[in-house]
Amino acid sequence: MDGYIIGTIIKAVLVLAIISALAGFGTYIERKILAFMQRRLGPMHVGPYGILQLAADGIKLFTKEDFIPSGSNRLIFLVAPIVTAATAFIALAAVPLLPEFELFGMTVRPIVADLNIGILFVLGMMAAGLYGPLLAGMSQRNKWGLIGSARTAIQFLSYEVVTGLSILAPIMIVGSLSLIDFNNYQSGGMSNWLIWKQPLAFILFLIAGFAETNRTPFDLIEHEAEVVSGYATEYSGMRWGMFFIGEYANMITIGFIAAIVFAGGFNEWGILPGGIAIVLKVSFFFFLMLWVRASWPHIRPDQLMWLCWKVLMPLAVINVAVTGFVMMV
Amino acid sequence: MGLEEFKDRNVGTQNYRMLDLGHTPESASGKFAQFAKRAVKLELFTGLKVTFREMYKSLFKGEMHTTKYPFEKLPISPRYRAIHEMKRLLESGHYRCIGCGLCEKICIANCIRIDTRYDENQRKEVSEYTINFGRCIFCGYCAEVCPELAIVHGGRYETASEQRASYSTFEDMLTPLDQLAQQSEFPGFGAVSPNADENIKKTPLAY
């Protein structure tokens, strides 16, 4: 039992360290990819190919003044970024990151907590992460912040139902909520991937995932051209940075969920071992988010609501009904 | 570009076609039909294709647009009027300025000050020559009026400095003696830039 607790603590610390480092690295990758797609160079001067830019950004964020505007609700203002960052990492606790492997004669399962309700826990935690922008925007006594938090509420009301309903059909097929069971269900090679059985659910989940992580077609809550920086207007320094670590950790989480639920997870993929396969899949989903950001304009809040309630939700319901009907017959 | 092609400048009548944008739907069902049609036609993926193509071209075809400015500079036109240069005679290395004072006379911003005296050989020499770059409007009259092509405009356009005087003494503007061999002649106003052939475009007569 002691070994279990120590192992869990080590895993939690490792996940926290690696994913937050990757989230920082994600900002560098995002700037580079966006630059290449606009035929620019991106960060180039700090270190080779600008790779140390994220260290420079980190130093800047850590040493910047932690600013609390007058008239704000001090406690909530201070707590809100922690909510976003913490829930993003708590959500990762139930995600199996790699296949099992042997280390020093022990079998290591790279999942912090193998919950039997894994996917519900992850989605619930990511939904709870929306409290961060909501509270931040309302606590700071700033018009842009208030609009940002109002948009957060709109966004939350829009996509959450689509996320749940789109993931429901795969859950019905697999018959379990554990992400490990999802992975094992697709262990028979590429033809067993759930994406072939549930293409509509995959697309709906991706769209909802983009909304969940505030990525570009749905980045209403802090869109600079409209609401300055939305909920993050009054934030500076590391508190601002925590929002973004949380956002990038959420992008990685959505990438993992999409890879595990729909794209075969960490099963061996042809000649590729499972660990490399899932890293490639998550990298692709991450790249897709940047690619979409470079390509598509973003939509208005009312358009998001229209899209989610009038188009995606009926499609998701139909998908669930058809799946149930086919399973019953 | 051949002469015939260059002479044919009726751009407005060439190869333009109207895009078939269709009509804007009025009713809700029409709007939904348009949405469904566009979704099924996968128009969004055209956008993804374009950005990916640009990334491929910039990374592998060498079509990156960035000029790393402080390290690389684009060539500027010889017509550009930046900080002045004082030229030297190629044979003797002596400055060309004969101290006639025409530039001081014509300067509409009153920023040139020239003083002359007789040297020991009873020849006129420039004892003082300054340009106040706080006043200079870079109109180019001084270079135009100079009978000896002694004062010309150079291409030194980065003029941020702690002291305006950093650029404005006679010695600063004179070609350094060790670079006399590289001293380029001012091609004169109206000269074309070195890459003029690449930049040439047809001017449309009708739109």
Quick tags:
heterodimer; A: 329 residues; mainly alpha; two-stranded antiparallel ribbon; 13 helices; 2% strand; B: 207 residues; alpha+beta; Alpha-Beta Plaits; two-stranded antiparallel sheet; 4 strands
Most residues in contact: chain pair: A-B, 14 and 17 residues
The name of the CATH architecture of the domain at 84-182 in chain B is 2-Layer Sandwich
What would the principal axes of the Cα set say about the shape of chain A? globular
Stated plainly, the CATH topology of the domain at 84-182 in chain B is called Alpha-Beta Plaits
Net shape of chain B: elongated
Compute the average pLDDT of chain B: 82
How many strands of chain A?
2
Write the H/E string of chain B, N to C.
HHHEHEEHEHHH
- What class do helices, strands and sheet pairing of chain B give? alpha+beta
Q: What structural category do the secondary elements of chain A indicate? A: mainly alpha
* Strand tally of chain B: 4
User: How do the strands line up in the largest sheet of chain B?
Assistant: 1-4
Distance between the termini of chain B: 21 Å
Proportion of beta-strand residues of chain B? 5-15%
Task: Kindly report the spatial arrangement of strands forming the biggest sheet of chain A.
Answer: 1-2
Low-confidence runs of chain A (pLDDT<50, min 5 residues)? Answer: none
Low-confidence stretches of chain B: none
Total helical segments of chain A: 13
Work out the helix count of chain B: 8
Oligomer: heterodimer
Give the structure's gist in a few sentences.
With 329 residues, chain A is mainly α.
What does this structure look like?
The complex is a heterodimer of chains A (329) and B (207). Chain A is mainly α and 329 residues long. Chain A has one domain (2-328). Chain A contains 13 helices and 2 strands, in the order αααββαααααααααα. Chain A has helices at 2-37, 53-63, 74-92, 118-128, 131-139, 143-174, 179-185, 194-197, 199-212, 224-227, 237-261, 274-295, 301-328, and strands at residues 101-103, 106-108. In chain A, strands 1-2 form a two-stranded antiparallel ribbon. The longest helix of chain A has 36 residues, at 2-37. Chain A starts with a helix and ends with a helix. The mean pLDDT of chain A is 86. Chain B contains 8 helices and 4 strands, in the order H-H-H-E-H-E-E-H-E-H-H-H. Chain B has 207 residues and is α+β, with helices and mostly antiparallel strands. In chain B, the strands form 2 sheets. In chain B, strands 1-4 form a two-stranded antiparallel sheet. Chain B is elongated, with a radius of gyration of 28 Å. Among the domains of chain B are: 23-65; 84-182, Alpha-Beta Plaits. The interface between A and B is medium-sized, with 14 and 17 residues.
